[in-house]
Design goal:
Strands 5-4-6-7-9-8 form a six-stranded parallel sheet, with helices on both faces. Strands 14-13-12-15-16-17 form a six-stranded parallel sheet, with helices on both faces. A six-stranded parallel sheet has the order 19-18-20-21-23-22, with helices on both faces. The longest helix has 18 residues, at about 370-385. The chain folds into three domains: about 5-210, Rossmann fold (3-Layer(aba) Sandwich), CATH 3.40.50.970; about 215-375, TPP-binding domain (Rossmann fold), CATH 3.40.50.1220; about 390-500 and about 535-575, Rossmann fold, CATH 3.40.50.970. It has about 625 residues and is an alpha/beta fold. The mean pLDDT is about 95. About 35% of the residues lie in helices and about 20% in strands.
Length: about 625
């Protein structure tokens, strides 16, 4: 057998450089490069390999370990999970900084390969700098913290273990259902140890991602149930987009007259102005979709995991005879809500279900204009929100209206946390698929800037916009510098409402007077953080890092800044002060957040009673 002597780190890079995926006969190079921050735990091992023998892998220097993993996650999300970046860090703080982002990738079912440095396998220099010593179990290191947030985890303590570990890592990274963060812990000394690897380990490997077909039996069960129902509602989740099934979704809905509601991950599956697209559903849903959900006798979930925001904490579906048909590539999700499970790829499932139903001449029982009237009413509400003026300044919904009207149909927006995901889910008018990039599986503050960089890496020919609040920007903005370094432009639209206003609103909606969520100066006499708003010059901050900047306080200034930003060559930030509390809310939805039964505040006690009433009314499914 032909062999080649390489260090474990060199062998890992050579292996990754030769991995490909194939979907529908189209072959794609899977690993595009490595994002990293070097430290003593990886610089002389993996760092040396990247410097001297990277192959065709590109190295991108991160500025914050969490941020670079978010960027890698967004890249994979935008590329429909068919291409990835790996991420490497030193041991200790560098590694642990990646844990939050690892969880974000896993919750969202996005493949990302993490290569943190680890303790010396030999243990001879112990304890080394940044080593976590667990006296009760000396085999535990900081990298063990990745276990609960990884879909696959392994520690390579001998160089020959790489072959099995790398193969298993690829199995999970290319699995359409069970993918997420994959962590290979790389001890500092083992990275540099050499082994005679078989040449076959480095040959080109194509991983075929076959579309999982529904079984005839599961299709028949779904058809039998659908045929009995008069008011079905489709809920389109992220699986529709990952399966590239927008065309099949439209054809299915049109064939049988079934309205389509969208989750955060599924938004942009259909154009906003499609006659059967009734918009967002659930806690952040439209009035049209939520009313249809409440009356539906059947929910057809396609590629959704039914989060509490999608189901309004299971209060969205109020019909006594409501049942569920779930098309999902994940059996875990397809069996939720006691539904008829059709475990399959979304595109293949929709095609099979449409063919099976067509033979029955099935059509929904909605009135001639029932769906159209609800949609028309909601479109008028969005027009009102987009035009809303406020005497104290720019309303958040007005700002979003200007942005939506000024951006192009193919421009990509990226968001994750705060009140903006709710507004965007309700009112943003997406035209083309994959232009609405929302991380709402984990709703991780700080994803937005890093995610926009990742999206810009994935689609450099498109304009990418990070839409975020001041709270998320302050939490993590480091990869703005990386975007400038790499020459990958995106535009940050920073809506400044002086704090964590989304949670401030949630507090006040459940009996609180509001506490600890606004960016105000401390005034002891007033009882804490109740002074004036802190004046933070976000434009100056971004400009100091090399970004072009603008500030817009009116709708006219915002429109002008957006047009000027399009002509900028590099990453740009537009600071947009908005009036706190001018976001959307309600529309016949509810969210169970838990309210104290006992409190010195009568308002809290009353809010608890209201919560109990809502819980008692929930259909147990």
């Amino acid at each position: 057998m032909n062999k080649i002597r390489l260090t474990m780190a060199q062998a890992l890079l050579r292996f990754l450089d030769n991995q490909y995926v194939s979907v529908d006969g189209k072959e794609t190079k899977f690993v595009q490069g490595i994002m990293g921050i070097f430290g003593h735990g990886n610089v002389t091992g993996l760092g040396e390999a990247i410097e001297r023998s990277p192959g065709e892998l590109t190295f991108i220097q991160g500025k914050n370990e969490q941020g670079m993993v978010h960027a890698a996650t967004a890249y994979a999300k935008q590329r429909n999970r068919l291409q990835i970046y790996a991420c490497t860090s030193s041991i200790g703080p560098g590694a642990l900084n990646m844990v939050t982002a690892a969880a974000t990738a896993t919750v969202n079912r996005i493949p990302v390969l993490l290569l943190p440095g680890d303790n010396f396998a030999s243990r001879q220099p112990d304890p080394v700098l940044q080593q976590l010593e667990v006296v009760s179990d000396y085999t535990v290191s900081a990298v063990d913290a990745f276990k609960p947030v990884s879909k696959f985890w392994d520690r390579i303590v001998r160089p020959e273990q790489l072959m099995q570990a790398a193969s298993q890592a690829m199995r999970v990274l290319t699995d359409p259902a069970e993918t997420g963060a994959v962590t290979l812990a790389l001890p500092q000394d083992v990275q540099a140890e050499a082994y005679d690897y078989p040449v076959a380990f480095f040959e080109k490997k194509v991983h075929f991602i076959d579309r999982r077909l529904p079984t005839p039996e599961s299709l028949q069960r779904a058809v039998d149930l659908i045929a009995k129902k008069r008011k079905p509602l489709i809920i389109a989740g992220g699986g529709v987009l990952y399966s590239s099934a927008s065309k099949e979704l439209a054809e299915f809905a049109e064939a049988f007259g079934i309205p389509v509601a969208e989750t955060q991950a599924g938004k942009s599956s259909l154009p906003w102005n499609h006659p059967l697209n009734v918009g967002a559903v659930g806690v952040t849903g439209t009035l049209a979709a939520n009313r249809l959900a409440a009356e539906a006798d059947l929910i057809i979930g396609i590629g959704t995991r039914y989060s509490d925001f999608t189901t309004s904490s299971k209060s969205a579906f109020r019909s006594e005879d409501v049942q569920f048909v779930n098309l999902n590539v994940s059996s875990f999700d397809s069996f939720k809500l006691d539904g008829v499970a059709v475990t399959c790829d979304a595109q293949a499932g929709l095609q099979g279900l449409r063919y099976a139903l067509a033979g029955l001449s099935y059509h929904s029982g909605y009135g001639d204009n029932e769906v159209a009237e609800l949609k028309q009413q909601w479109d008028a509400e969005v027009d009102r929100l987009y035009a809303a003026e406020h005497e104290d300044g720019l309303a958040q919904t007005r700002a979003l209206g200007v942005i939506n009207e000024t951006l192009g149909d193919s421009d990509i927006i990226v968001c994750a946390a705060g009140s903006l995901p709710g507004d965007l889910h309700r009112v943003w008018r997406s035209v083309e698929p994959k232009t609405y990039h929302m991380e709402y599986g984990f709703s991780c503050m700080g994803y937005e800037v890093s995610g926009a960089f990742g999206a810009a890496l994935a689609e450099p020919e498109k304009n990418v916009y990070a839409i975020l609040g001041d709270g998320s920007y302050l939490m993590l903005h480091s990869e703005l510098v990386t975007s400038i370094q790499e020459g990958r432009k995106f535009t940050v639209l920073l809506l400044d409402n002086h704090g964590y206003q989304c949670i401030h609103n949630l507090q006040r909606g459940h009996g609180s007077d509001g506490f600890g969520n606004e960016f105000r100066f401390r005034t002891e006499k007033a009882g804490g953080l109740k002074g004036q708003y802190m004046p933070i010059d976000f434009s100056a901050h971004a400009r100091s890092m090399g970004a072009a900047t603008y500030k817009a306080t009116t709708a006219e200034e915002l429109r002008e800044a957006l047009l000027l930003a399009k002509d900028e060559k590099g990453t740009t930030l537009i600071e947009i002060p908005v009036v706190p509390g001018t976001n959307t809310s309600g529309y016949e939805s509810w969210w169970n957040v838990g309210v104290p039964e006992v409190s010195v505040s009568d308002k809290v006690v009353e809010a608890h009673k209201e919560m109990k009433q809502n819980i008692d009314a929930v259909k147990l499914i």
